[in-house]
Amino acid sequence: MQFTVSKRSRNLRLVTAATAVAALVTVAGCSSQSAGGGSSDTGKATASGGAAKKGLTVYFIPKDTQNPYEVLADKGGQKALKELGGKVVVSSGTTDTAAAQIPSVQAAIQAKADAIVIAANDPKALCPSLNQAAKAGIKILSFDSDINCGNSPQHLFINQADTKTIGTTEVDLLAKEINSTGQIAILSAAQSATNQNAWIGYMKQQLKKYPKMKLVTTVYGNDDPATSLNVLKGLISAYPHLKGIISPTTVGISSAAQYLSTHKNVKIALTGLGLPSQMRAYVKDGTVQKFALWDPSKLGYLAGYAAAALASGTATMKTGATFKAGTLGSYKVLAPAGDVGPSVVLGPPTVFDKSNIDNYKF
Amino acid sequence: MTSDVQTAPTGRPDSVQRSIGWRDALRWEGGLVVVLIAVLIFGSAQSSSFLSQSTIFYAGINIGYIALMALPMTFIIMTGEIDLSVASMLGLAGSLMGFLWHHGWGIWPAIIAALVVGALGGALNGVLVAYTALPSIAVTIGTLTLFRGVAQILLGSLTVPGVGDPQFPDSMTKIGTQSIPGGALSYSTVLFLVLALLAGIVLHATPFGRALHAIGLQPEAASFSGVRVAWVKFCLFVVSGLICAVAGVLLTLQNASVSYTAGTGLELNVVAIVLFGGVSIFGGKGTIFGVLLSVIIFGALQMILTQTHVEAEKQLVITGLLLLISVIVANGRELLSRVRSRLAVGGGSR
C-alpha cells in the first residue's frame, strides 16, 4: 500500500518564465515562414501557420509528476513555449488518478490559461472539468493518453505514433525473439488507461498472425515500480512456461528488465515501450534485445506548438489544417477515426537495440 | 500507531477521570479556527484567484465526497475502531452503479442497488468487528482489498458510459459543473453540511451520542451500564458503508463516468481529516465541529497549494506533517502519560 497521506496531492510546478527576445530569435531561425516577421510581435494571425501569440500560458497536466516519460514530455513542451515567448505550467498529482488531475484543470481555469495539454489518467472522468475549461475559452489538447469525451469538449489529440503501428510493432518484435512460439503475457499500466488498452487491442489483432503464440493473460502494474514487480512475480510463478512478456509502459518494462537481469535462470524474452536511458544497461547485458519508443520530448514539443497555434488562432482542429512545429517542421490535422477525434501524429516509433541505443539520450 | 488503534478500548483506567474532555476539545478547535484564519490570509495573499466563488465551488467538488465519508469515520474512531475500507466501498458502489447502467438499468434502480450494496458491505465489516471481536484495522484492510477487487471484476478496463452506452442524465451530472441555484456551493458541499449538522446533533445531543463516547472511553463500563456495544458498532459500520456508497454515487455523477479505480487511496485522506479535526485515535474524544473545521482547512489548503504551483511532492510533505502534528498535539497528554508510565521518567518532548 502506498503511504500517500496527502490530500490528493496536486502538484504544480512552475517552470521557466520565458525570455521573449531570445525565443523570438530562435523561432525566426527555425521557421522559414516567420523569418521576416520579427517585428510583428502583436500575435495577429497572419496567414495559415502565422506567428503564435506571445505571452501564452499553457498548462501541461501529465499523468503524474514523477513518471520519467512524462517529465521529458513536459520539458519538450516548455522548450516549445519558450521558443514562442510563452510559458508552461506543469501541474498534476503524484498518483495516476483523475482526482489528482481535476484540481489542475480547475487551476488552469482560474488562472485563465490559454491552453491545456493533458495526458488523461481516465478517459471520461475529466470530461466535465475539461468541458468547463473549454467553455471558459481554453483550448484543450490531449497527448500520450487521450480523453474520450465526444464533442464536449472539442479537443486535439497529439498522438505519439499511429496507435495500430505501436501495437503491431511490439508483437512483431517479440515474435522474432521467440520464434513465434509459446505462451506470452502483457504487463500493462492501469487497467483503465486509454492508450494501453488501445495498443493491447491491436496486439491481440496482430497475434492472430502468429497462431503458435498464445496470450495467456494481461496484468496491471499501475505504472508503479513496486506493483509492477509484484504482478510480474505472480505472472512468472503462475505460468512457468512463459516465453515472452510485452510491457507497453516505461515503468513496467524497466521494472521487469531489472528483475530479469538479476534472475538469469528465468528465461523470458521481454519487449515493449521503454526509455533508452532506463533500458541501456539491460540491452547491453542481453536481458532485453529490442524495444520501441518515440522521443517523448519531441511529443511534448509538438504538443506545445500545437497548443500555441490553436490558442493564437493560427490553426484549427479541422481536418487538413496545418501548423508549424518549430524544428519538427509542418504538421497536418488528421480526420477523426473511430474513438479518436481530430489528431496529429508525431511519427513512426523507433526500435532500439545494441546497435543504436547509445545514440539516444532520453 | 496501528497496534494502538486495534486495542484502543482496553487498559486505560485513568482516562475516565478526564471523561468527555470538553475543555481539551474546545482548546483544539480554537486552535483549528486560528489555523483556518491563517490559511485564509495566506491564501488570499499568495493567490489572486483564491478569494473567489469558483474556489469555494471547486473545493466543494474536490473534497465534498471525501468529507462525507469523514462523518461516519468520526463516529467509528470515537468508539476506538477504524474503517479503512471506505474508499474501496466508494469505488465498489460507483462501479456497481456503472455496471448496472451499462447493462441497461435505469439511473434510480442503479443508484439504489449501489446504496444497498454499500449497506451490505458495511454490515459485513460490522458483523466481523462487532460480533467476532476481530480488530477492525485487520478486518477493514481485508475488505479494502475485497471491495476493490469486486469493483475491478465488475468493470475491468471498462469506463462507463462506454461505447454505445447512453450518458448519465444531464440533470444529475450537472452537480459536477454547476453550483446550487443562487449560491457558490456545490451540491456535494450542501449534502455534507446537512449531514454534518445531523451528525453533530446525534453525537452531542442524544443518548446514542453519549453511548459512543462511553464505548470509546471504557467499553466494559459502557456495556455494564446498558449500552449494547456490539449492536452500536455494527450500526456504525452499516452507516459507514451506506454513506461511502452515497459518496460513490456522488463522485460518479460529478465525473459523469466511473471506472473501478474511483477513489483509490482516499481512506487515508478520510482518516487524516478526522484526526486533524481533533478526534482522538484512542477513542472517546472529538467533535463534529472540529471535523468540519478540518474539512474546510484541508479543502482550502489544497486549493492554495494547487493555485500557487507547489510541487506535489512538497504537498505530500506538508499534509503529512500537519497530520503528524495533529496526532501528537491532540493526544499529547495521553501520549505523555503513556510514556511516563512506561519509562517512569518524564517524556521529554511534548
From TrEMBL, chain A:
Give the molecular function GO annotations. Answer: carbohydrate binding
Cross-referenced Pfam families, in alphabetical order? Peripla_BP_4 (PF13407)
Q: Does the keyword Transcription apply?
A: no
Which keywords are on file for this protein? Signal
What cellular-component terms does GO give this entry?
Answer: outer membrane-bounded periplasmic space
Which residues belong to any copy of the Periplasmic binding protein domain?
58-314
Q: What is this protein called?
A: Rhamnose ABC transporter substrate-binding protein
Species this chain originates from: Flexivirga endophytica
TrEMBL record, chain B:
Signal sequence, start to end: none
Q: How does it sit in the membrane?
A: Multi-pass membrane protein
What keyword terms does UniProt attach to this protein?
Cell inner membrane, Cell membrane, Membrane, Transmembrane, Transmembrane helix, Transport
Where it sits in the cell: the answer is: Cell membrane
User: What transmembrane ranges does the database entry give?
Assistant: 25-44, 56-77, 84-101, 107-134, 184-209, 230-253, 259-279, 286-304, 316-332
* One GO cellular component, as annotated: plasma membrane
Check the record and name the CDD domains matching this protein: TM_PBP1_transp_AraH_like
Task: Report the GO molecular function annotations.
Answer: transmembrane transporter activity
In terms of superkingdom, the source organism counts as Bacteria
Q: This chain belongs to which protein, by name? A: Autoinducer 2 import system permease protein LsrD
From the UniProt record, report the name of the gene that encodes this protein.
Answer: rhaQ
